[in-house]
Amino acid sequence: MLSPREKPSSWSTSSSSTSPRRPGDYIPLPSRPSTSLEMTNTTTTSSPASTIFLGIDVGTGSARAGLFDEKGKLLGSASSPIQIWKEGDFIEQSSTDIWHAICAAVKSACSLANVDGKDVSSVGFAATCSLVAVDADGSPVTVSLSGDSRRNIIVWMDHRAVKQAERINSSNSPVLQYCGGALSPEMQPPKLLWVKENLQESWSMAFRWMDLSDWLSYRATGDDTRSLCTTVCKWTYLGHAHMQQITNTDSRDMEACGWDDDFWEEIGLGDLVDGHHAKIGRSVAFPGHSLGSGLTATAAKELGLKVGTPVGTSLIDGHAGGVGVMESVPLSDSKATEDDKEAICHRMVLVCGTSTCHMAVSQAKVFIPGVWGPFWSAMVPEYWLTEGGQSATGALLDHIINNHVASPHLANRAASQGVSVFDLLNTMLESMMHDLKAPFLAALTEDLHVLPDFHGNRSPIADPKAKGMVSGLTLDTSEKQLALQYLATVQGLAYGTRHIVEHCNSHGHKINTLLACGGLAKNPLYVQEHADITGCPIILPKENESVLLGAAILGSVAAKNYSSLRDAMKALNAAGQVFHPTIDPKVKKFHDAKFQIFRELYEQQLSHRSIMRKAMA
Fold it and tell me: What is the pTM of this model?
């Protein structure tokens, strides 16, 4: 999925380096003693809070740990970088490396927050929806053409399985209606099919195929129970097979009855049905249910925690962000609707960083072409989840900025002023608006338009072959021109969000409020443009680290501190700043016009494809 939280000290999702990595490069793992660690809001008192919840989040570029008190306040956090190998559409990681990074981050977070590991009450995991392969002993099984045994994870954003996804989608299996009508190459069945077809030795060796967050909880507890979040959202598991088991207090023992065996047989992966689906999940649980007997002795020692500490069934990182923010509404609103089960259904959460997840829930299932879901109980138990998304948001802004000729000089200027590149760009745009006497800031891009599908379109078009487009380029290579390209890209991403919201509402949702978290939510220009373009108020959470909080909430439920996930969300979520959409009709008219151009750019791309396809026939 995504990595929205890589830089706690800034809302930039980019590396400090301005030099893009070359294909085949990887991020080397530094020795753990010199690991990059960051602490926020650290307690300095010698007596710890009575209840401390630990949330662990593995993003695309780092593993992070955060400690929270019973009010949802962050006591301290730390992060540790993780390796990543990139070669074109092939993107891989190492589960061994990730676990070492987690252990380093947890120990450092405890140290920095002045918390003894034995005082941690519970643990919850969240991670990208990457695919992990291990053998019968739990050792890594390579998923790489290089044969490197360390590289046993196909990262969420890997697009090696586009052709496999196309073949699967041609099957017209009934399970596809719960994925917006088509599987994305970012989901697990296409990736599994690719491995079977291209790495037969690895296919034979693999004893377990797991979503990364499920592997983390398995590594911590020894319990192979899978989460309804991961299996339903990324594996075509039909969670509503368990609708009668919502009151089951021991849901970790639920037999996995939601697999569609005909689907797996039809797409050529019938061997995964063997052994009661042992390789992909025999049992499932609702997010937050207690796993095994808590931390094993080995995991507890490695993490610096106590044996038996309760561990909750995991979530995908974006969904953890949803859990960490979805009840973050102003007190006046929450009191007025505290007993209204429908109130939560008018909200959409944007977990925005490297990519962005757009998540809304409903009491009744809503089928929306091109949008993933409906997924029953995949995020909030008893609610159907609709999941839209954009595959490259923070990653796209990094790409636009880092590949511009003015980028190195801009980065040097930002460093000399002690601000982020994005702070500097935002300030430049304000100055340009005044200097050019523009009626409002957004109007600076009157002649510059961006279709942001540089890594395909996840929602609502569901076209992994979609390409990015820019209309309005000149020979200007100045920093000011870079600022305009940055603004136009932010707007393009916001038009994408508007497209998703309007598409969802036209098919039965009633979304009128957005809640945003993740690295990009710390950028006021990014948030305000989204408010103006969607016409929705955007609420930011009081606690910035919503994904870590969502992960911590899972553990709090497992430890029985709260009776349900929803109760924990209400207790630990809190609202912060609210960005209201503009009331200026001129701004609305401007964005309506640019949104029309945004939609036309994709239609033009389809026309161009058709013309070239005929020419190449």
Answer: 0.88
DSSP bridge pairs for 471: 449
360-375, pLDDT tens digit by residue? Answer: 999 999 999 999 999 9
pLDDT, tens digit, for every residue of 310-322?
Answer: 999 999 999 999 9
Domain of 68 in residue numbering reads as: 52-328
Alpha carbon distance, N-terminus to C-terminus of the chain: 36
Of 332, 334, 327, 333, nearest to 574 by C-alpha is 327
DSSP state string for 3-22: -TTS-TTSS--S-S--SPPP
* CA-CA-CA-CA torsion sign (533, 534, 540, 545): negative
Per residue in 15-58, pLDDT (tens digit) is: 333 333 333 333 333 333 333 344 333 343 344 568 999 999 99
What is the DSSP-derived secondary structure letter of residue 457? B
**C-alpha angle 170-238-200 in degrees, rounded to nearest 5:** 55
DSSP H helical ranges for 388-478: 394-402, 407-417, 421-435
Residue 405 phi, psi dihedral angles, 5° rounding: -60, -25
Domain CATH code at residue 255? 3.30.420.40
Give the separation between CA 189 and CA 174, rounded to whole angstroms: 15
Q: Residue 544 has which token pair?
A: 């910035």
Would residue 134 count as lying in a domain? Answer: yes
Q: Could you give the angle at which helices 479-506 and 585-616 cross, rounded to 10 degrees? A: 90
Within-domain flag for 1: no
163 assigned to some structural domain: yes
CA distance linking residue 600 with residue 597, whole number of Å: 5
Query: What is the number of domains present in the chain?
Result: 1
Residues in the chain: 617
C-alpha 136/C-alpha 199 separation (Å) is 18
Q: Which pair of structure tokens corresponds to residue 273?
A: 């049905």
The answer as to whether 26 is a domain residue is no
- Name the nearest CA neighbour of 280 among 262, 263, 259, 266: 259
φ, ψ (nearest 5 deg) of residue 314: -85, 175
SS3 443: helix
CB 326 within 8 A of CB 358: no
Closest CA to 269 of 186, 315, 206: 206
Supply the Cα-derived Rg of the chain in whole angstroms.
Answer: 23
Q: Contact at 8 Å (CB) between 141 and 133? A: yes
